[in-house]
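Structure (tokenized):
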């Protein structure tokens, strides 16, 4: 199978790394010459990577074509390509309505939208796709987990959830700096927090669906330190700020 990428940026680098690490999932990966540095790095790392001369060459050479460009240039780039009828096309372009994408493609293709995350590189991604598609789900399952969304609403909501990555690292970063300023070596603070958050995520994954507010209550001993942080965070508007930020992203995604 040949997989092509129009747009060789951060997410293409992660996907190609995942696709060609371990047992390769493609016989050939064709990438666009932009970004030149990332394309050259991928070609150096993986002999199965070929850098195309232009975007049309990628469309023509691919059994699965991935559109991985920024939303701002998507219309211009996609409209400039001639797609093959029936071709499998995956768009990872954020916040771009499916109907508009189909209009720009201008051909009856098998179009799936996806939200791959950087950890697909190490086969630990969780990728929302819409609509359900067994071929595309199989690809992303090999790169971690695929979540097939039955409705656009579900897909949009997972897109909102995926916008929490920078804030997650922000919370870790802020706490690490605070601990370091109080005298803990920064590396120890960082390692401790990474293990703490990994343990908490594992607890949720193994909890057999126990409601999260129950877990929160379980971890917030009456009169204890966890309860103090939770009450303080909520009282100072932390939860309200988070909720408003999620609403804002949803408004943006829905246009
Ligand atoms: N990064 C993530 O975690 C992530 C996750 C899910 C979805 N996405 C979505 O995936 C898309 C790509 O994101 P990204 O983070 O990979 O962005 P990025 O790093 O900016 O990559 C986009 C690439 O497109 C290239 N490009 C610009 N004009 C082009 C053209 N005419 N033809 C072909 N390639 C062109 C750029 O090359 P130059 O550098 O030469 O300009 C750049 O390398 C976005 O829509 C983003 O929202 C990203």
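Design, position by position:
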């Amino acid at each position: 199978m040949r997989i092509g990428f129009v747009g060789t940026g951060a997410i293409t680098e992660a996907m190609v790394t995942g696709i060609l690490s371990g047992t390769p999932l493609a016989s050939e990966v064709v990438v666009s010459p932009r970004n030149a540095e990332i394309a050259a790095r991928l070609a150096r790392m993986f002999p199965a990577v070929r850098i195309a001369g232009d975007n049309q060459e990628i469309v023509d050479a691919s059994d699965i074509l991935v559109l991985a460009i920024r939303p701002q240039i998507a219309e211009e780039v996609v409209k400039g390509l001639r797609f093959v009828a029936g071709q499998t096309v995956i768009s990872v372009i954020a916040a771009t309505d499916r109907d508009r994408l189909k209009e720009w493609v201008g051909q009856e293709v098998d179009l799936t939208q996806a939200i791959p995350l950087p950890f697909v590189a190490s086969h630990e991604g969780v990728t929302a796709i819409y609509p359900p598609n067994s071929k595309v789900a199989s690809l992303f399952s090999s790169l971690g987990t695929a979540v097939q969304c039955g409705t656009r609403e579900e897909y949009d909501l997972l897109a909102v959830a995926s916008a929490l990555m920078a804030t997650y690292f922000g919370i870790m970063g802020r706490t690490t700096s605070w601990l370091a300023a109080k005298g803990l070596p920064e590396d120890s603070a960082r390692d401790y927090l990474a293990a703490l958050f990994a343990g908490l995520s594992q607890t949720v994954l193994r909890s057999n669906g126990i409601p999260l507010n129950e877990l929160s209550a379980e971890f917030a001993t009456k009169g204890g330190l966890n309860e103090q942080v939770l009450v303080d965070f909520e009282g100072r508007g932390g939860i309200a700020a988070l909720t408003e930020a999620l609403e804002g992203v949803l408004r943006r995604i829905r246009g």
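Reviewer-requested clarification: The chain has a mean pLDDT of 96. Strands lie at 2-6, 28-31, 49-51, 64-67, 88-91, 110-115, 125-130, 144-148.
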